[in-house]
Design a protein that fits this description.
Elements lengths: L1 E6 L7 H14 L5 E6 L13 H4 L11 H8 L4 E7 L7 H9 L1 H4 L2 H4 L4 E8 L4 H14 L2 E8 L15 H19 L1
Parallel strand pairs: 1-2, 1-3, 3-4, 4-5
The structure holds flavin mononucleotide.
Length: 188
Amino acid sequence: MRVVVLHGSPRRGGNSDTLAEYFVKGVKETGDFEVLDFILNDMDIRPCQGCESCAASAEHKCAIDDDMHQIYSVFAEADIVVWATPMYWGYMTAQMKIALDRMEALAMDPEKYWVNKEFVAILTYRYHYQSTIGFFERIQDYFRFKFNSILYCSKNEDGPEDFHVSTCQDKLDETSSLGRAIGIKIIT
Ligand SMILES: Cc1cc2nc3c(=O)[nH]c(=O)nc-3n(C[C@H](O)[C@H](O)[C@H](O)COP(=O)(O)O)c2cc1C
């Protein structure tokens, strides 16, 4: 049983990273899960060049030879895929969006890569998250994954510094509970 976690924030140990960690902790309490973390900010992943070779080739292989192939190679066998990203300018971070565009190579075969997987969007934000959650909800009909989300507003109304999620025990508990619930669904 495998969990693939895509970390979209450049801030290690930030809000989305911390929530991903609590989610995985919950999952691991339920069984023997292999967890594969991908820190997108540290990976060499080029933007999609729109060459359409993934559509043209029989095996839908992406023509760009870079670290994205580490993700391609484990995606089909993932039972749970976590997308953890802060909102940046009304959407996910550039790091996450680049990886998402490169998922085009996996979009050609929904049955193999998407259908019935547990997908978890962890979105951290100060003002709004709707445009990113809306995106995941919109593609859900076509890809038929099971969609779950954790949302955390880090805005501190009284000062310039955000509230780190580690100060919000309820959110940490909600997140590990979701991990446990999804883990139990998978093992039973
Ligand atoms: C460059 C940049 C752009 C941001 N844009 C938005 C935004 O459009 N909407 C929003 O609600 N928060 C925005 N934020 C706030 C972050 O989403 C928020 O601080 C989040 O909790 C950070 O998560 P992290 O700790 O996982 O990096 C932005 C922050 C940065 C640095």
